[in-house]
What we know:
By secondary structure, the protein is mainly beta. It is built from no helices and eleven strands. It has strands spanning 4-7, 10-12, 18-24, 33-39, 46-51, 57-59, 67-72, 77-82, 91-102, 105-108, 116-120. β5 (46-51) and β6 (57-59) form a beta hairpin. The N and C termini lie far apart (39 Å).
Amino acid sequence: QVQLVESGGGLVQPGGSLRLSCAASGSIFSINALGWYRQAPGKERELVAGITSGGSTNYATSVKGRFTISRDNAKNTVYLQMSSLKPEDTAVYYCNSRIMVVGYTWTPVGSWGQGTQVTVSS
C-alpha cells in the first residue's frame, strides 16, 4: 500500500500563498491520477484539484485561477500551489494516491495521507 506524507501547511494571511507537497512511497504513483482534497470543520471532504498521469487537470470552481496542481513522477510527489488564499480555504488538506476518473467524475480510491492544516486568517 502506498504511504503518503503531506507537508507545507500553515497559517497565512488572506491574499497569501502556500505550496503543499505530498510525497509517496510507491512507484505505482506515476501511473495514477492523483488529487488534493480538503475538509473544513463540519463539512464533507471535497476535491480541490486532480491531475491525471497525462497531466490533465481538474479544479473545484472555488479555486480555479488561484490553485495549481502539478506532479513530479521522478520524485513521487504531487504539489498544490495555492495563491490569493481566502479565509474559506481554511481546512485540512489531504492527498490521495489514486483517483478513478470516469467522465467528469473523480473518485478517490487510493490511500490518504495524514493531512496538513491550512489556516487563512489575519
